[in-house]
Predict the 3D structure of the following.
Amino acid sequence: MKFGGTSVGNANQIRRVAEIVKANLDRSPAVVVSAVGGITNKFFALKELLLQPSKRVEAAAKREEILNVHREILKDLSLSEDLVEPLFKEFEDLNRGMWLIRECTPRTMDYFVSFGERLSSRIVAAHLDSIGIPAQAFEAPDIGMITDDNFGGAKPLPGYERRIQEALTGIDKVPVITGYIGKCQIDKERTAITTLGRGGSDYTAALFGAALGAEEIQIWTDVDGVLTADPRIVEDAYCLKKLSFKEASELAFYGAKVLHPSTMNPARQHGISIRVLNTNRPEYEGTQIVESLGAEDLTLKSVTAKKDVVVVNVIASPMLDQYGFMKKISDVFSDHKVIIDMIATSEVSVSMSTDQNVDLDPVVKKLKEFSEEVEVKGDKCIVSVVGQLLGERRGIAAKVLEIIHEEAIPVDMISYGATRINFSFITGQEYSRKAIKCLHDALFKN
């Protein structure tokens, strides 16, 4: 049972979590928690202040703001501050070090933001204990979550299932586990905290669920499940009863915020279904994610958008008979650990999209070594229509193109793969909301 930031966002929400856990004690729950809602963003804001000599007062205020959020929750739950005092001191020491050296490496940043989950796990476990539910807080790195050293986006090393099983064998309390974080080996003597990427608590839950042979992996959030569109854009978006792993993976990768993109892999590999549920409406059945769908579930599922996308156009002399040209391009992105979202080719160019927030300068520099020209166009978004019905019924892709033409939405690239689960196109970021709304109106209302 993974509970997200909004689910543990204050004392009342933590009480709701406790009631949900209590109602499921007969199913032997293992609990994974995110940081208190909004806290991780505060850590990132504080980091920026700590690196600026003129922002000392603001940094101190932001640090106290973070600590006071947790103090208030402890007070409301009648828990002693002694529970987290060692973590508070450790956090303040790290703040002082960052302030003095004016530096924050990716390794330091992972350590810095880890305090959110480390604090929330202790608080949730202590509250469960205080109401008669025996519980114990665990930091995931201490019970088997050993990862590579890709700070900010680490992956578990092989053997995590065995390590987790061994660590939790014989535990007769409800384990409350930190999401998002792991650790890597620096040398024979030293380890370092890593993080699994923003939203990585979902991934943690899937990894632990797979390792423990769970009957189900539950993602508890603040919506009823996976919706047909972002409800902030489409007021009449509705909850989906069932998705396939393939559909859910496409949605997660292309902008849906309900699930972390990597969540599906461990669950699918071990044959475990995922269910997305609402902490504030636990009686609602939510959305179930399974391996295969029945005929009645082969429908269009959702329209979503991935923002902050950049398109890289590699323009070269005619590529006909140039064996290995695509490999040369992909190797450049791979060597710099830049993930490609979409790709389109012609005889004279290759166009790729990726995250606008990554450093593309070394990529562009390397591409120019064997290309005539490299163009980078930012402020784009990928709009995707997802559902296995795309592959079952003709004409839907044509309908999508007709709609965006009628709405005068420009298109930079199109992707429609062999699986026919996802039809995507790239447009300017300013067209994102309009595209989602008009496509939902045309494709989902009936």
